[in-house]
Every structure is written in C-alpha cells, then in structure tokens.
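Here is one chain, start to finish.
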Amino acid sequence: MGILDIDAEAALVLATQLGTGAQALSADVADAAAMRAAIDEFRGAHECVDIFVNNAGVGLRPTPLEEVTQDDFERISRINMSSIFITSQLVVPLMKANGGGVILNIASTAGVSPRPGLTWYNASKGWVITATRSMAVELAAANIRVNAINPVAGETPLLSTFMGEDTPQMREKFLSTIPLRRFSTPEDIGAAAVYLCSDAASMVTGVALEVDGGRCV
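Its structure:
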C-alpha cells in the first residue's frame, strides 16, 4: 500500500500508523514528473498497482464567480482535474499490462447539486464525474473499473473553506440541506471506498456514489 501526500511528514505518520506494508510517498499530484518518480518508487517495493485512489482536492471560499482570481481557478483546475489526467496517464498502462485494476476518484455532491458561490469548484467536480464515467466505458475492455464517490460536506479541514466561516449558525445552515442531519465523516467515505475497490463491486463501474445523507435526493 502506498500513502502519497505533498506533505512528506503527514504521509509518513499515516504509513507508520497503518504498519507493515504501508509505504510513505511524497509528490505534488499536479506535477507529472514528480508523480512518475513517486510511482516508480512504489513499484520498486511492490509488484504492481492494483488500486489507485485520486483523493487530492482543494476547495474555494464562497465567492461570486466573476471575482474568483485566475490563480485560484488554475489551482482548482490543477489539483482537482489535471491530477487525475496525470495519474491516469501513468497508472492505466500499468494496469493494462497487469490485466486489470481499479481507479477511484473522489468527486463531490457539488458536481451534482451545486451550491452558489462555488461555481468553479462545482465545475471541477462535475468534470471528475464525467471523466469517471468516460474512463469506465473506455477502460472496461481492459478489465479496469473506474468509479467515483460524491461526499457531502464533511468534518475535514475543507469544511470551513466551503462554509466561509465555521460558526454554529453556518453549520446549521449546511445541515439543514442534509436529510440525515449530519456531516459526512472520513469513516463514511472510507467504507464506500473499500466497497467500490473490492471484489464485491466487481460488476460496478462508471458509478458516482453519493455518500451524502440524502442531500442530492
């Protein structure tokens, strides 16, 4: 198992917690050369890449679309979209050579049911969903399954970014749009990821699974 993070220390901490078999790697997911080096390092310790999860993402504070800077737009594009293009270029040939594999992309409910003030973030996650479906169709013949997860807002560092400010009033406003009346947790997303990447989901591809407490209903 490889744990990749732009923060090398964070990757090492998690790999240590996971124990034997977990390898810490560090790279900027939007840097093709750095990602190639990281994947080569991983392959030096493992025979193949069976499962690849594109989990990197950045958000945007609520901002009128015409006021978002080009730098912010390009940052969203690089990390939320270009990174998936880059990793696919590197990982898909390896999976084809190995007879198959699984790719999981982390999208968002924002790509299905957009919130105002987050237009370019919403658009990036819509792109992830469409890319996932197209990848699934194209790669099915190579026995590569491709799915996505659409989490609702969760208890992560990105929550305050999306809300603009982390106050009881703002939390209540967000929770009022989620029928189950709670934010998602890393455990919620992890459970969905385990299923989609497992043999139990061997007939599931091209799905963008909403883990959202009913928000997109």
